[in-house]
Every structure is written in C-alpha cells, then in structure tokens.
Design a protein that fits this description.
Largest sheet: 13 strands, mixed
Number of helices: 22
Helix content: 25-40%
Structural class: alpha/beta
Distance between the termini: 47 Å
Number of strands: 15
Strand content: 15-25%
Shape: globular
Length: 705
C-alpha cells in the first residue's frame, strides 16, 4: 500500500505532515520549520515575503508537493464555502455579482494576475408559473411549485429556455421518456398526441432530451420529476432544456460585448429551444397525479422500478392538468474570472484548472464545493510562490459563469480563444461538484489515466487515514469514465477544441441536486461535515496542475489511449455484426499504437537525461516531444463535426445526437447505427473516425508525409 505525502485532516492552521518516505529527523525538523514559516506568512501576512524554499534554479518536486499538500486547511475551505453560499446566486442576478467580487478579490489578495473575461448572453428566467389538475371526481388541485425555506431570492423551480405558454390535456405517464418507453406504450395502444406527459428523470436521458422526444410524439407539454425528492425534503429539480451549449444567439462565435447577436426569430436560435412548455415537479405532487391515472396498466418492464408499483396505470384517463409558464428571455452580462500564474520557462504553454461559480440556488454542492476547493488551491499556490517556486508552464485558475444555463461562460471563452488553446493548451482539469458524498469518481481522456492514478497515490483518503485515495478508488470504483457526456465545463475544451481533459468529483450523486436545499447546512450535515473530502479533492486537483505544469516531459501516455481505442473497436465490431467493416479502424489504430510506443520510448530517454536548464539542444527535444503529445488530441477533431451536433468536433469522445445511441464513444458511428442508416453511411462514419485517428498519429509522430 502506497503512503500519501500528507494527510487530509489538517489543523485549522493547515500544518500537517505525513511523508512518502520518512526523512531523517533533522530533515524532517527543518522541513516543518520552513513549512510553518511559509504558511504563517501566507495566512497572516499576505503582503510579506517569507524565506525562499525554492530558488529559481532549484526544482525539488517532492518537497514542493509536500508543501502544497501540507498547507491545506479544512477550516479555510469551510469559510470559503460559507461565504459563497450565503445567498442564492443564479447567473445574471445581483447576488451573482457578490460571488464574482468574492472570487476576484480572493485571487487578487493572493497577488495573482486576475482578469475578467466578459460576454453577453441570452438567459432565461421565470415570470409566472402555475399548475392545476382536475381529477375524475371533479375535484381540483392547485399545486405548490415552490421548494425550500421560503427565501424570496430563491428562483422558483423552472426549466430555462422552456417556451412561454399554456398546455391543457389528459396526462400520460411515459416512464423515463425515452424512445423505448414510447414504443412500450404503443404496444398497449397508448398515444400521447394531444396530451401532457409526465416523466420521471432517469440516468440516460436529460430533461432536454425528454422534452425533445415528447414534442416529436405530439405531446402538448411535459412535467418532469426526480424520484430522490431532495432526500425527502420536497425539493424540485431546476435545470435547462436548451439544446446544445453556449450562448444561443451567438452560436459558434464568442458572445463578446457589442458583438454580433442573432435575432430570436433566426432559425439557428429557434432550433435551440423546445416548442412545447415543460415544468419540473416534486415527487410528492407527481405521486398525486400518478395515483389518479386510469387507462392501461404500466408495461411490465416499468413496474417495481423505482416507485412505480405493479398496479400503476399510465392514462390517459380523466385526469386533466393545466400548466402555464410565462418566461423572460433577456440579455445579461456573463463574467469569467481568470487568475494567471506565469510560467518561468515555457510561459506560452498553459495548464488550466476550471470550475463554475453560478448556481440555481445556494450551490453548496453544485458548484461551490468546487469553487471553494479552487480558491484553496490558489491560496496554497501562493504559499509555493512566496517560497520561491515558479511553475515551468503557465497555470490558469478559471471561475466560469452561467454554466447552469448550458456551459455558457466556458463555451464563450473557448470560442474566443480556440486558436490559442489549440496551439498552447496542455490540459484542462475540471471540477464541478467537488463533494456530493463518499467515493472518488473521475473521467478523463485516456492519455491522462496514469497521471491521475499517480496523483491519487499521493493523497490520503479522507475517510480512512490508513489508505490513499487510490486505494479506496480501486476497491470501490476503479473505473475512469470517458468524457462523452455534456454536463460540465470540460465539454468546450475537449469536444470543440480537442484539449486533453479530466473531470473529478466525490460522491456518485446527491438528493438535493438543483433544489433549494443545496445549502451549506446540508453539506455539513450530510456530505462532508469536517471538509476532509474537500481537502482531498483540492489536493488531487492541485497536484495534477503542479505536475502538468512542472514536469520537463509532459506525463502523457498514448499507449493507454491506443489500448482504449482497441477496446472501442472491439465493442463496435460486436455491435455491427457484419453490417460494416471495422478494418479501416483496425489499420488506423495499429498505426497509432506504433507511434504511441515510439513517443513513450522517446519520453523515457529524455526523462533519463540529467536535467540542465541551460542545455538548449535537450530543451528543444523536450519541447518538440511535448508539443507533439499536446497536439495529438486535436487530431481527433473533424471540421464538419458530429452530424446533427456540428459544434461538437471530437469523433472519438463526443455527445451522440441520437438518444438511442448505444455507444459512449465514436458518436458519429453510434448515431448512424441508432437511426438504422445504410451500410454505406455507417461505413462512411467509420472511415471518418479512422482518418481522425490517422491525423492524431501524424501529430504525435511529427513531420510530414
């Protein structure tokens, strides 16, 4: 069992040491003295300069990582989260400006170069919402659509970008609202045309997808509920139903202040919004409607699933609902905060850490558990800076705005900086909800898998002091997901710009998601009372940033990527069962594997050479290899994008356009299979992916044909 560099149970002052290898007593004593002095100066005399631990010419990575981890403070992170979550701070509202000021002032107080990147975006708010039902006995109910403690600043539960209007009709229960659920209804003779559908949110289809399918089936409106019900608190899940990500009136270009904006009537804008209204519903209210339904019994496969009982009816019976939504679409300023730590040797290469700041309500989990971790990373980096450290490459600490409306802040920033990102971004490290509960979870592009596991070995598990995060990860989960989903700010970086990415979080899910109960009080009572998990996440996240910014040879492993591509090819081959040939993929992956092996061998040789900052020839060789490894991910992009979702360019990991797609990779191929395309069309998509892999191979190899 590997030992962490530091425990994740620091004192209030942040002084704690548990070394990887026990140093001699004198070394330990000297290290602790330096650590205490550096931490004291940073926490209590931010404008003073502590004694230098690292000179500009010294690079002691082990001591550096010890200092970073040991300067953690759970009390400090707790104070950040409390300050950020005192009020709801939905993007575009006045309280959101308070969190903007808090984050900006924090980075500036640490002496970091801090700038705002501002955009204008079309945001959506509710003006009036109502829902009433009439039952078979002619009784009526006006449903309470509020949740939470009655704070007037909490936005009422709604679906952003749902069209204004009313819908009245009989109710039909459609389970998760997937295509297969409608096929099951058709088999028992039930149609939703002219009805209002009631859906329970599942795992595979988001609220926007539920509404899109219901609209295509002829429904008049949609009601969506979550079965977790805020952990029995009566919470109602807010969210967006916009299709795609980014500002809807500046599709494909940055929504800079004073820039071009399309009209609301433009087809490029209208296709982003549903045509029928939808509302979120509490479990309690959904159960009232479900209990009143007549008609056919629910399909067998729905029964005894979640809270659907064996006797559940699906309608349409005599239950009629009348739903009304009056919304406001308005242009609002969106503010990203970018703090820069300039690199000493390669300032034109960037390692980016990002988290969004806006929340539907108080946002203690989503997203400010991540925000508080990012602020603490900034504070800990300032400890290193005042001890003489400078990263080799530039580090950016980014606080995004308006993520909840559809990753708007980060998307506009990516669109504005896409060429520079393509030329100089090493990696993007995303944390949205840092702490939802227990257990470490992560997704990444495959060349980062090994680095992620190495970082987990260095951090003590927050729930078992005898273990590292890697120990518990491997025993409880041991799966690094792939980032084809579109649910956080990594999407623009990976799917549009081709930047290697990682996304991390503690806890599989949590019951107060997007409800008024996502508060500081809920966090300290349920998810992380002592903020040990916050400290662990900040430790892993910050270490990844340090390693990627400091290692002379960027620690990417494309052999891991090649192995993952082989696995994807095998899974696709089984799914196709003779419909098309995967030979083009096989040949492209074989070539990629050979180039990945060459790159790994080259990296090993360069690492074995004694590092000399003044050896220009060795620096040029390292720079050349690093650039090739950095650019290889861009090879998987295709200028035409994914059919039906053309903004998304990544042909290996990206969102499928079809909800029925059965693969979590090769989205274009998956879509072609899902819609029963011709063999020729499926083969064309296979060739597109093969060509993308060949491009990645050429980028990794370097030179020209």
């Amino acid at each position: 069992m590997s030992q962490p560099l530091t425990a994740t149970r620091p004192t209030t002052a942040g002084i704690s040491l548990s070394p990887l290898r026990q140093p001699p007593p004198l070394c330990t004593f000297l290290f602790i003295i330096v650590l205490i002095v550096a931490t004291f100066y940073t926490l209590h005399q931010p404008d003073a300069t502590p004694p230098l631990l690292f000179s500009q010419n010294t690079h002691n990575s082990l001591t550096l990582r010890r200092l970073f981890l040991s300067s953690a403070s759970n009390a400090t992170i707790s104070s950040y989260l409390r300050a950020l979550t005192r009020h709801p701070h939905l993007a575009g509202t006045k309280p959101s400006l308070d969190t903007l000021s808090y984050v900006t002032n924090h980075f500036q107080s640490l002496g970091l170069d801090t700038r705002l990147a501002e955009y204008e975006a079309l945001l959506s708010y509710p003006a009036h919402i109502s829902l009433a039902a009439r039952f078979s006995n002619n009784t009526t109910v006006e449903f309470d659509l509020n949740d939470g403690p009655g704070d007037d600043d909490v936005v009422r539960p709604y679906h952003a970008y749902s069209p204004s209007g009313s819908a009245q009709g009989n109710v039909v229960f459609v389970n998760h609202g997937e295509e297969r659920d409608y096929r099951a209804l058709e088999l028992i003779g039930v149609s939703v045309r002219g009805c209002v559908v009631l859906a329970r949110k599942g795992e595979s289809l988001g609220r926007g997808g539920i509404v899109k399918i219901a609209e295509a089936k002829g429904a008049l409106g949609v009601l969506i509920y979550a079965e977790n019900d805020g952990g029995g608190l009566g919470g109602i899940e807010r969210g967006t139903v916009m299709r795609g990500i980014g500002d809807p009136v500046s599709p494909g270009w940055p929504g800079v202040v004073g820039g071009e904006k399309l009209s609301l009537e433009d087809g490029e804008v209208t296709k982003r919004f549903p045509k029928i209204p939808s509302l979120p519903l509490s479990l309690r209210n959904a159960e009232i409607i479900l209990a009143s339904l007549g008609g056919a019994r629910a399909p067998v496969e729905w029964r005894n699933s979640g809270r659907v009982g064996s006797g559940q009816r699906v309608g349409p019976g005599q239950t009629v609902v009348n739903m009304t939504l009056q919304g406001e679409l308005t242009m609002k300023k969106v503010h990203n905060v970018v703090a820069t730590i300039r690199g000493s040797e390669e300032p034109d290469r960037y390692v980016i850490l990002g988290n969004h700041r806006d929340a539907w309500t108080y946002g203690a989990v989503d997203p400010n558990s991540g925000t508080s971790a990012l602020l603490d990373i900034g504070r800990r980096f300032s400890v290193l800076l005042k001890s003489g450290w400078r990263p080799r490459r530039t580090i950016l600490l980014c606080s995004w705005d308006a993520e909840e409306f559809g990753m708007i802040g980060s998307t506009e920033w990516v669109e504005e900086n896409v060429l520079n990102l393509g030329a100089s971004a090493v990696a993007y490290l995303n944390v949205d909800c840092a702490v939802q509960g227990s257990g470490f979870f992560a997704g990444s592009t495959p060349q980062l898998d090994g680095l992620l596991l190495d970082a987990l070995k260095l951090v003590q598990d927050p729930d078992d002091v005898a273990l590292t995060v890697e120990d518990t990860f491997k025993s409880q989960n041991n799966i690094i997901e792939r980032l084809s989903r579109v649910d956080s700010d990594f999407s623009g970086f990976l799917h549009h710009a081709g930047i290697p990415s990682i996304d991390m979080y503690y806890g599989a899910d949590y019951p107060v998601y997007h409800t008024a109960f996502d508060s500081y009080d809920w966090m300290i009572r349920n998810a992380d009372p002592l903020f040990h998990r916050h400290v662990a996440m900040a430790g892993v996240w910050g270490l990844l940033g340090i390693i990627l910014a400091d290692e002379p040879v960027i620690p990417f492993d494309y052999i891991s990527y090649a192995e993952q591509l082989h696995a994807h090819r095998d899974a696709l081959s089984k799914l196709l069962v003779g419909k098309a040939s995967v030979d083009p993929l096989s040949m492209a992956i074989k070539e990629f594997s050979l180039v990945a092996k060459e790159a790994k061998d080259e990296a090993k040789k360069l690492k074995e050479q004694a590092y000399n900052k003044n050896d220009a020839a060795a620096a040029a060789r390292r720079r050349g290899l690093n650039d090739r490894m950095m650019l290889a991910e861009r090879g998987f992009l295709d200028s035409e994008g994914i059919k039906g979702k053309e903004w998304f360019k990544h042909l290996v990991y990206g969102p499928a356009a079809e909800p029925e797609s059965k693969l979590g990779f090769f989205p274009g191929i998956a879509d072609a299979i899902a819609v029963n395309s011709s063999e020729g069309m499926i083969q064309h998509e296979i060739w597109r992916v093969a060509r993308a892999i060949q491009k990645a191979s050429r980028a990794l190899k370097g030179g020209f044909t």
